[in-house]
Amino acid sequence: MDSSVRPGDRVASGDRFSRGTNQSGMRDLNERLVLSLVRQHGSLAKTEIARLTQLSAQTVSVIVRALETDGLLKRNEPVRGRIGQPSVPMSLDPEGAYFVGLKIGRRSADIVLIDFLGTAVAMRRLPYRYPLPDDTVRFAVEGLQEIRDSLTHRQAARIAGMGIAMPFELWNWTEAAGASAEEMEQWRHRDIRAEIEGRCGVSTYLRNDATSACGAELVFGKAPLPRDFIYFYLGTFPGGGIVVNGSLYPGPTGNAGALGSMPVPGPNGKTLQLIDKASIATLEKMLLEAGEDTSRLWANPADWGGIGRELDAWIELAADGIAHAVISACAVIDFQLAVIDGWMPVSVRGRIVEAVAIKMARADHEGLRLPDVREGTVGAHARAFGAASLPLSERFLLGQ
Fold first, then answer.
1. Which one-letter DSSP state was computed for residue 20?
2. Same domain? 238 vs 347
3. 226: Cβ–Cβ under 8 A, 6 or more apart, which residues?
4. pLDDT of residue 222
């Protein structure tokens, strides 16, 4: 990956959105504001939009009419009040735009197409022992072409961009990936974002995979979120993201929220990193040492089969590390909430959240207000959905 490419960089066509024709263009500030509010509230009448934005009724009418003409907003059934004309709520049109998300993981790659509401329309998956650049680019190109072939001409024309979510500096994960240094070193010298953009012909964006998962919770999450929260995604290795003042904060290098590197207490007074305690790779190692099959961990995140003692021990280990990481983070930023999601069954996620809350309450947190802890609502594929949210946020929303 070319070090000059910053995560979240906007690339490719800079043309202004061409009304009714080029769905990949940028919206202006007020249009983004209206689209963001309608997404947040589900539907809004023009009078409500004017009140929330403090724009004039005439300005709102012009904006809404333009967005409706472009197929981004649609009219709902009129709502009649006691007096005056009925109001007509406007909502996002699911077919207004489509977005592609590519997740490059350490054990598999996923490509997903979502509609304007964030609903998955199509998904493809490539399992592997470890990721290699050529295979990844080929999968992205062929996967997107398969998805395009399954769409109508109008739907395919409304694909507005692709996001890529991947771990940074993959070449440093040689031992963990089980690959040779020569194979993983290929990642250092490849600009995957540019290659995929050139081959696929869509504007492409790049962000760290766990930070992307946090973005998915922010944009598509099914539960109300406070203005400030910390987010953990437990995959092969743990990572996360932070949201401050309602916006995802990736930091100047895109590495803010590198929670896997957080120092946490280890055995015998030794300090470890969270990656040593909350990685699914750690659970895999525990299972291998017990002579258990580990393929179920990666085959289906909804079903890990009958894992017993090792899973119990790992949940305790992971929860202890996460609890300390949350408390340490709250000493820097007064987070109101900690969200935990990951590549795991919902039942396991729930047990981890419960254990983290208990361990936080028992830990020394004098002088700090503990945040609430709850499960993420996007689920195991949050990284792929977060990748798809990149072009959506960059082109159509505010403050994501």
1. T
2. yes
3. 336, 337
4. 92
Nearest to 192 by CA among 395, 24, 3: 3
Indicate if 229 and 189 belong to the same structural domain.
no
Angle at the Cα of 301 (from 230 to 148), degrees rounded to 5? 90
User: Given this model, what pLDDT does residue 1 score?
Assistant: 36
Contact of 167 with 208, CB cutoff 8 Å: yes
3-state SS track over 190-219: CCHHHHHHHHHCCCEEEEEHHHHHHHHHHH
CA angle, 257 as apex, 273 and 188 as ends, to 5°?
Answer: 80
Joined tokens for residue 8: 């979240």
Q: Residue 159's beta-bridge partner residues? A: 98
From 52, 67, 92, give the residue that closes a domain. 92
Residue 18's pLDDT is: 28
CA–CA distance, 41 with 97 (Å, rounded to integer): 19
Same domain as 191, residue 81: no
Q: Residue type at 343?
A: W
pLDDT-flagged residues of the chain (< 50): 1-25
Work out the end-to-end distance of the chain between its first and last CA atoms, rounded to an integer number of angstroms.
25
Return the pLDDT at 172. Answer: 81
Residue 361 is assigned to a structural domain of this protein: yes
Would you state the structure tokens that stand for residue 37, as one six-digit string? 């509010």
Residue 71 belongs to what domain range? 29-92
Q: How far is CA 346 from the centre of its chain?
A: 18
268: left (phi over 0), alpha (psi -120 to 50) or beta: left
Domain count, the chain: 3
Q: Which two tokens stand for residue 317?
A: 């280990």
Query: Which pLDDT does position 84 carry in this prediction?
Result: 59
- Determine contact, residues 380/103, Cβ cutoff 8 Å: no
Could you identify the residue written with the tokens 């119990």? 312
Same-domain pairing of 286 and 329: yes
**CA–CA gap between residue 152 and residue 154 (Å, rounded):** 5
116, 123, 131, 132: which is closest to 102 by C-alpha? Answer: 123
